[in-house]
Amino acid sequence: MQLFLIRHPRPVGLAGICYGRLDVAAEDPQAAAERLRPLIPPATPLLASPLRRARELARALHAQAVLDDRLREIDFGEWEGRSWESIDRREIDAWAADVLHFVPPGGESVAMLQQRVIDCLVGLAGPRFGLVTHAGPIRAALGYWLHWPIGEWSQVVIDYGSVTLLDIDPSTERPGRRPGRATLHFLNR
Q1: Residue 52: half-sphere exposure toward Cβ, Cα within 13 Å
Q2: Which CATH code is given to the segment(s) 2-186?
Q3: What is the C-alpha to C-alpha distance for residues 180 and 177, in angstroms, rounded to an integer?
Q4: What is the per-residue pLDDT for 179?
Q5: pLDDT over 90 (residue 175)
Q6: Between 20 and 30 A from 78 (CA), which of 22, 103, 139, 175?
Q7: Burial tier of 38 (Cβ tally within 10 Å: 0-12, 13-18, 19+)
């Protein structure tokens, strides 16, 4: 199955602000859609995060885009909407010490994010899907299927308004075991 992992356009007015589930506006989705459309095969079903920055791009790409809450960005809890400088340095250090399992107050861990994204994706049946989402869910999918360690996949740069193509071989999937084989065809086009 081919997964076209599409990141939303750049949010506006958020320099230095912690945002994940914060529902914010982004740059013009039509411009991004025009650039991305030739990279995604026609009639590719599209799933999207319901957050405005992803939802608007999804609707610009596909009139029948389906929204799925599991594709939202990570929930930073009490950190949402605050400047990074105002967050207690001890909490930031604790997060850096355990990126996968640290839970910001009232939020979710990266492991929790990855699990909900994988729950969404393993239920898909078909030759290809487009997912309009955020950097966190895209990284989580890449890490899971490419068997990358957290220190690698959590640092992958995912450009705004880009598409990444991951091809999953479903014949290698085994329930209850490590995910099957996948191929990364391109990153950030």
Answers
A1: 11
A2: 3.40.50.1240
A3: 9
A4: 72
A5: no
A6: 139
A7: exposed
Rounded-to-integer distance, Cα 145 and Cα 118, Å: 9
Q: Is the separation of the CB atoms in 110 and 142 below 8 Å? A: no
> What digits encode the pLDDT tens for the residues 77-114?
999 999 999 999 999 999 999 999 999 999 999 999 99
Task: Count the neighbouring beta carbons within 10 Å of the beta carbon of residue 174.
Answer: 8
Domain spans of the chain?
A: 2-186
Question: Could you tell me the sign of the dihedral formed by the alpha carbons of 174, 168, 130, 100, in that order?
Answer: positive
Model pLDDT, residue 101: 97
Contacts of 132 (CB under 8 A, 6+ apart): 6, 8, 46, 47, 48, 49, 54, 55, 57, 58, 61, 65, 71
Within 10 Å of residue 86's Cβ, how many Cβ atoms? 10
pLDDT at 180: 74
Q: Which of 126, 129, 21 is nearest to 75 (CA)?
A: 21
pLDDT of residue 169: 86
Alpha-carbon span 47 to 49, nearest angstrom: 7
Of the pLDDT bands very low, low, confident and very high (cuts 50, 70, 90), residue 166 is very high
Placement of tokens 């989402």 in the chain: 133
Among 49-53, 75-79, 93-97, 168-172, the least confident range? 168-172
Tokens representing residue 78 in the block? 């009490």
